[in-house]
What does this fold into?
Amino acid sequence: MELSGKRAIVTGVSRGIGLEVVKLLLEKGMHVAGWGRTPPRLENPNFHFISCDVSDEVSVDDAYNETKRILGEDIRVLVNNAGFGVSGNLEEMDSKDWRAMFDTNVHGIFYVSKRVVPNMKMQDEGHILNVASIAGLNGVAKFAGYCGTKHAVRGISHAMYMELRDFGIKVSTIYPGSVQTNFFDDIEGMNAHENMMRPEDVASTMVQTLETHPNYFIADVECRPLRPKGKR
It folds into this structure.
């Protein structure tokens, strides 16, 4: 897809991968509505921050209406990036944390995507990119809830592309391994470090996926750090 001059929604733009994706889309000449809970440190005339909690459908509806007011309804790119994880043994997991992960990581994709799909169908063009995780392909001890949400993202994404491909809409999923982001801030015993992937590299791969030829579709992208433990 040629990105210049088109409009995008990116969720989870406060920092990390979401913010890096926004920066690259702006460089490509896109107009971007960035949804998140906290405004990022970014100033650009083509960037519009919109406060949104994707786990709350009312908040999503308000954010979408605000996006339509600013950019119009013709959204050609949606990046469902918002998400978080809580670690812990299954029997010790707080039920509120469990539900919160599913509300944001899974239900949020549904709430946001259902609002942009109708216009994409009308335009016979669109690309939805859902951010999963390596945890959506494998099990990870002490991350049962997070793994469950990201496995759900994979299943939802594959069903979506089967539904939407005949309408000119691509639905891609990216599965990053460990990334140098704030994901690890609240996880005991785990910290971001230089042997993890840089968020800007993951973002670059995502934008390359969006720029593919209209009849060329990348369903899944798995990316990992080459030396996660550094040089031997």
The longest strand covers residues 169-176. DSSP finds five helices and seven strands in the chain. The radius of gyration is 17 Å. The mean pLDDT is 93.
